[in-house]
Structures are given as structure tokens and as C-alpha cells.
Amino acid sequence: MGLLGLYQAQFRTTAATHLQYRVESLIWLFGGIVEPTVYLVVWSTVAESSGGRLGTYTSGGFAAYFAVMMLVEHLTFSWIMHEYEYRVRMGRLSFVLLRPVHPIHADIVDNLTYKLMSLIFLLPVAAFLMWAFHAEFAPPLWAVLAFVPALALAFLLRFLMEWTLAMAAFWTTRVSALNQTYYVAVLFFSGQIAPLSLLPGPLADIASVLPFRWFVSFPVELVLGRLTPAETAAGYLAQAAWLAAALVLVRRVWRAGVKRYTAVGG
Question: What is the mean pLDDT of residues 247-252?
Fold first, then answer.
């Protein structure tokens, strides 16, 4: 069986698992809806109280931003950092290492399967938020087309970086503090709490050199028509550069981590 056949088989297995635990999946989805909705309400209110505009965003602009951000965040996030500690601590990784393929492939399919199944519920919610908050959303066709590869690169980059971070569990079996620090950094510097253009100068400068912008903010700004073709091309180059670095890093950390791996549970 080739890699494509493996992905198909894993997709069917994961889909069946999510259907079996559909209540848990819906709870996770609910959390992904509530958080951006709260940000939307807050920033829309601030914009209206400031004369209808804050920076380059009107209240309708915020509605479009956070509705799209909710979708992009859903399609790029991963939960691997929270699982890896358990795999190592309980010895679950031992069984995975016996398989003839790298375990990252199963994690990719698990992630994509959940997201595709959840979109059935998430897309109507995003459409409702745009309608209820009078979203201003009229991107040019080229931006919509350019959004697709930008989103794919964002997913790959974020997944590889978070998979690499998850492997800290090879060196310490308690990584919750590291995960929380990373989560806060992503919230601030990926554009989830607020559009990056609204950040104070020093924070905006930091966001411009960190990889988090290319996870969420770049695809969102692109599909909203807020970037020029030149800025889009520069964004692609930044994503590609970070992705190349992430590929090198994940391979090196994996090799070093497996050499240290010792199951401490059973």
C-alpha cells in the first residue's frame, strides 16, 4: 500500500472514530466558535464607539475579519502538543514506532479528517456571523484564488512547528507550561485576538519577524483583499522559508528524540 492508500485507510478509521465520539468533537468545535465570536463582539463594539472605525477596520470589517479568522484558525490548528506528552509518558509511542511509516502521516490525516467533518457545522456559523454583524466582504477574484495555496502552506507550517514543539516530551514528560506559553504567543502574534495592524509599534515589529503571522493573519488578510499582489508574493516567500526551516527542524528533533525515548508508562 502506497502513501495515498495509507492516507485513505487512515481517513476512514479517523472518520469512524469521530462519529463514535461526536459529542466530544462538537464540544471542541463549540470552543473554536465561542472564542472568535467574543473577539468579534468586543472589537465591533469598540469600533462603533470610536465613530464607526478603528484603524483601517469598520465594525463590518471586524465582522468579516473574525468570521474568516475563525475558519482559518480551525483549518490550521493542531492538538498534537497536548497529546504527545501522553504518548511518551504512557508508552503509546512504542507501538507507533513499530509501524513502517513515520507517525506524522497518521497525525496529518487525523487532523485533516476532523477539520473536514467539522466544516459542515462551521461554515453556516461563519456565514451567520457575517450576516448578523453586517460584514464587509468583497475581495478581488485573484485574492480568493491566492488564498487556497496560502492556507495550505499555513496549515503545513503550523502543523510541522507544533509537531516539533510537541517532541519536547522526549526530554521532559511535563510540557504543559511550554504549551501554554506557545498558545499565548500564537494568540497575540498570529492575529487571533486582534488584527496585527492594531498592535502597538513594538508588538507589531515582533509579530513581523515571528512565524505566527503566516499561520493565520496572512491568509485572512489575503482573502479579505487587504494585501497587494507584491505583499502576497512576499508572504508566500516568508511561508516557504519558514516551512523549509520547519522541515529541517522536525527531522532533526525527531531523530534526536527517538534516541532518547524511553517509555515511562505502559
Answer: 94
Q: Report CA-CA distances (Å) from 199 to 44, 54, 180, 203, 205.
A: 16, 12, 21, 6, 9
- C-alpha cell recorded at residue 247: 522541515
Read off φ and ψ for residue 57, nearest 5 degrees.
Answer: -115, 130
Structural domain spans, the chain:
3-260
Alpha-carbon torsion 153, 246, 174, 178, what sign? negative
Query: What value does the mean pLDDT take over residues 2-17?
Result: 70
Helical pair 59-76 and 141-166, crossing angle rounded to 10 deg: 50
- Whether 230 and 176 have beta carbons less than 8 Å apart is answered as no
Instruction: Name every residue whose Cβ is closer than 8 Å to that of residue 239 and which is 6 or more positions away in sequence.
Output: 150, 153, 154, 157, 214, 218
- Does the global pTM surpass 0.85? yes
Give the residue from 183, 219, 176 showing the smallest Cα distance to 78. 183
What SS3 state is found at 58? Answer: strand
Quote the mean pLDDT of the chain. 87
Residue type, 9: A
* Residue 91 · residue 263 · CB < 8 Å: yes
Return the exposure string of 125-158: e unless at least 16 CB atoms fall within 10 Å of the residue's CB, then b.
Answer: bbeebbeebebbeebeeebeebbeebbebbbbbb
Q: What residues are paired with 54 via a beta bridge?
A: 57
